[in-house]
Specification:
7% of the residues lie in helices and 43% in strands. The chain has three helices and 18 strands. Strand 2 and strand 3 form a beta hairpin.
Length: 281
Amino acid sequence: MVKINKMLMAGALAASLIFGFTGCREEEDPNDMLNVSGSKCTIDYTNESTTEYSRGFSSLKVTHYDAVCKISNTTSLNKESGDGVMGYIFAIKQNDDTTYNFAIAGVRNNNGTVEAYVSYFSNVGKDYLNAGNNFADKNGILIGKPGCLATEHDITKAALGDTSWKTLKTNAGKSFDVWVNVVANDGTSTGRTGEAGSYTVSFYNGDPLRTTSASGSNTTYGAGAPSAIAEYTVPASDTGLTAMTKLDLGFYANVYGSSTLKGTWELSDIEGEGEPVEYVD
């Protein structure tokens, strides 16, 4: 995990004023699962519990509109349901009561079948972002139980009807690469014509070759870019936004019991602020 040092080198401090920082808050990744370096993150973590998930996330510490995230996974056991979920987490907001709202585009290797899902969560207690089998509200009440303040909009299941998982690739073996393209819509700009405040989430088996203008608005894709395998919308009714808004982006992992999750995340075409840099040890 990238640590924060109170004494920053002068050059790094100057860079921080221009670009901002990225790193892990202790509450985000208490199990030290994620290792962040600028716009990249790696995981090689074993969850020794037989019954509970081990979760963690790390958000960039300056806000952005969106980015493309390449997720690369290497499976150790190649078992049914896989070793866990590698997620690109976006539209992260911490509420006044310390709960979180956020969206996740997650992928996993289910015995050689690469699967993905998209969900938007509201009012999730911060302690339940890193432990336990289910997300819960600040009072510890699980989503779906009576009286729970936390909610989930399972966007993939709403689209597919009977499952939360969309198949992206079969016969993948023990490793895969997936590109997740998250676009914050403003309703008018090129490539962003969805409802203002909504997000479009697209999955690819190759680099979408995305480029966004300096203003963070018009977004285009290079010649020869692959077609999206699947595309979903996180509506403005979920996010509560009425405009394209700079919020936190980040990396998320959910390691299943008795499993080891290995992989990398890499963000590109990050829009909204300067490129993230590391805290200095």
